């Protein structure tokens, strides 16, 4: 379902990246450690990222009514610093004052299995990614939020609307990779350079012939004649009774 962990750059689509990587791809600005706690049998560090405040999703309203996206990862240092749980949601802000101690969550990712790879760390083999929304059956649910009700209302009940799971059945390390996988085929006439060896190549042309071209010599062409076609017969010198061949460009 997801690509390997720790992608080196941001993904094209947020849905194409591993849920744990989504946390590590957040900007370092706004990232801080809240402390440590016990999560099940593991002692974890709680790392939080808090985005810059923004207007609530219902648009313009009471001046000073804002919200901030909060993402928290519960990281286990004993298992390769993998997150055992990642929570994301919004906290409310009223004129710079934080209204909520805990965010109204809309996404929870839990790791249900981790495999230790000899000499290669750890990999999360099982997990669940849950998306949540406000429960429309909750009596406190208000579909027509205003700035006033948004700031003063209690946190609403949530329901799961999506439950995506992953289960990796096989993880191996140091798999041999065939060199043929790295063989690139260029269209004939394409000039390219090997940045390791510093040698230039011309697709469709033997390297020896291309190097002769680079050195200012025309490459030899195959011919049924015993002499290359770019040789021509020379003239006779005085005092000699026979002709001799001399090289010259066509």
Model description:
The chain folds into two domains: 154 residues, no CATH class; 75 residues, no CATH class. 8% of the residues lie in helices and 38% in strands. The two termini are 63 Å apart.
Q: Which helices and strands occur, and which strands form pairs?
A:
Blueprint: H1 19-24, E1 31-39, E2 42-50, E3 65-76, E4 82-94, E5 97-98, E6 104-117, E7 121-134, H2 147-152, E8 158-167, E9 191-193, E10 200-202, H3 207-214, E11 231-233, E12 245-247
Short key terms for the protein model shown above:
250 residues; 3 helices; mainly beta; 2 domains; single chain; 8% helix; two-stranded antiparallel sheet; 8-stranded antiparallel sheet; elongated
The helix/strand class is mainly beta
* Number of helical segments with 4 or more residues: 3
Order of helices and strands: HEEEEEEEHEEEHEE
Number of domains: 2
Oligomer: single chain
Percent of residues in helical segments? under 10%
Q: Give the mean pLDDT.
A: 76
* Count of DSSP strands: 12
Strand content: 35-45%
Summarize the structure.
8% of the residues lie in helices and 38% in strands.
